[in-house]
Amino acid sequence: MLGLDIRNSHSHCHLKPPASATNRFWRCRRSAAMTAVVVGGGRREVDEEEAEELRRCLAPERLDVLEQMEPWVEAHVLPLLKPAETAWQPSDLVPDAAALGAEGFHAACVELRERAAAVPDAQLVCLVGNMVTEEALPTYQSMANRFESARDVTGLDGTAWARWIRGWSAEENRHGDVLSRYMYLSGRLDMRQVERTVHRLIQSGMAMHAPASPYHGFIYVAFQERATSIAHGNTGSPHLFAHYAAAAQQAGVYTASDYRGILEHLIKLWRVEDLSAGLSGEGRRARDYLCALPRKIRRMEEKVHDRAAQLRKSRRPSRSAGSSIGPSMSCFPS
């Protein structure tokens, strides 16, 4: 199923939400090689380096920063959310039977299927991966609700962070809906197989590095949202498995160049190169490492391009991971 047949459960990576605000801080117990980290009642094994990273990021003074940012989030972040009355909805973008009537709906679906028939298989594979990624929204909302000092503890918290998480989730929910409806109406996919994949993906969950750290979490979200914006714009998504990464690279919908561009954009936006005040030696090394990454990725791109040019010149068949797309597409109806 397009490489998305997820069978393994990762329940051991799940962390339970906190029972109360007094239970928000972590505890750790060292062993020779591993550390048991407890966050909000959930326990998982990590190595010592990650445990130290967690200790720093979840220190009370670090979490207080998030609480002190509440007025800023209220003033600058929440206004970015659009009310349901003015936001686009999936029915605005695909045929709506109630609005078009029986004959109009039928004609619109015929036109949609004719246009969808011209979509190349590689782009369609990426579109499926994109849709499956979006449909795993419950996993992403639960991920955000693990961030210390920025979570929605009761499900109806009035804090700016909690309202942002709910509002973001409400807007994100439309993406999977519209993609699913388009693919259903296109007639090009075995939707039952796709739906089984979504089911397995949500059921399996997703392990995340430093899952309770709002610092790790928000940086991850910044990269992910920027990458998703690029992938959506090119009708593809690289964020599931190597199979999809190969398809996205081959189809040109998301490449190493795009990833490098995201790094360059965020490094400039956050003025990482200018950071110096208060940085320890470790902090300066981390800053320099991050700022050097785009150049390293560019060199990798150049090597890949040179190798591809040599293969074309020798007319040797190029066997890439993307070449396995066709036989693997069991979600395509026969």
From TrEMBL:
According to the UniProt record, where is the region Disordered? 303-334
Q: Which GO terms describe its biological process?
A: fatty acid metabolic process
Q: Where is the composition biased (Polar residues)?
A: 320-334
MF GO annotations: stearoyl-[ACP] desaturase activity
Source organism superkingdom? Eukaryota
GO CC terms in record: chloroplast stroma
- Database matches in CDD domains: Acyl_ACP_Desat (cd01050)
Coiled-coil regions listed in the entry:
none
* Protein name per its UniProtKB record: Acyl-[acyl-carrier-protein] desaturase
